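Notes to self, EamA domain-containing protein:
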Amino acid sequence: MNNKKAELLMMSVSLAWGSSYLLMKIGLDSISPFNLIALRFGIAFTCMAVIFLPRFRALTSSVLAKGTLMGILLFLLFAGLVYGVNHTTASTAGFLASTTVILVPILESIPPRYRKHRYNGVQSLALD
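result:
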């Protein structure tokens, strides 16, 4: 991949991510927050189920349990996000959510001797 294509992809992701807060704010004017979350999750589930149907059929109970737990955590995150967008401006919500772009590299710069083992915590739920 050349630099121009990489920059174009980064720009399109930034545009989609940034506009999602505005679109959520517009959507919250016509439907309730939990219906908006259900719509987003439903569309995502349907798309992923169609794309990964063979893998979806081969799920084990362990993977399904871990996926359910991660889904619950993601739902709680989105519920907080939609609640925040509903009670503040879209630009403020976008700014606060975008601080993770700055915080992740800062936290990653902590020397390894001060970090816990890389598989501790919630990350271990995604592992088999």
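- The two ends are 32 Å apart (CA to CA).
- The mean pLDDT is 78.
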